[in-house]
């Protein structure tokens, strides 16, 4: 692409770094912003820099939060004896949207993937183990995608957690998830949480 302006070229180059955004789309977005009122564009860039600078991760569950402890972990209305283990914040949002779950969460921050060089130490595993050391937790539910990485992660975590006196369950693994939890429709996801099965039973299928 030949740009008539270095400023234009720089902005396009930044947008083109976003996932799924090619040069053409980046140019279209940048030209769109140029057509907006200046205060609107200010608000746009301010929201992004504020997000990056001020966002926190809940120190209990590691979900993205505006506070040190997120609203879910801080809520006395939630069942803190029930921890749902998920890959990332999109899964928390998807499960919250089902209105079928009233426990708390633990966000791993990824899945074990030897191919990508992601091992257990890259994930929030130790803090999950710490959370189980009190006697308050009765059940851990794995809600991870039905992929090789999801299965590997559950297998690993199960080994780590099995000596605690808790129930370990998993959302129905037989359902065709199409990969990521966030793409499952709310009814299916909600039902799979309600009808979760003990992890051992899920293996014998
Ligand atoms: Zn939290």
TrEMBL record:
Pfam families linked: RecR_C, RecR_HhH, RecR_ZnF, Toprim_4
UniProt-recorded Gene Ontology molecular function terms: DNA binding; zinc ion binding
PANTHER family xref list: RECOMBINATION PROTEIN RECR
BP-aspect Gene Ontology terms: DNA recombination; DNA repair
Function according to Swiss-Prot or TrEMBL: May play a role in DNA repair. It seems to be involved in an RecBC-independent recombinational process of DNA repair. It may act with RecF and RecO.
Every Toprim domain range: 81-176
HAMAP family: RecR
Homology family: Belongs to the RecR family.
Name by which UniProt lists this protein: Recombination protein RecR
Keyword list, A-Z: DNA damage, DNA recombination, DNA repair, Metal-binding, Zinc, Zinc-finger
Origin species: Mucilaginibacter ginsenosidivorans
PROSITE patterns: RECR (PS01300), TOPRIM (PS50880)
Zinc finger (C4-type): 58-73
Metal-binding as UniProt keyword: yes
Organism domain of life: Bacteria
Gene: recR
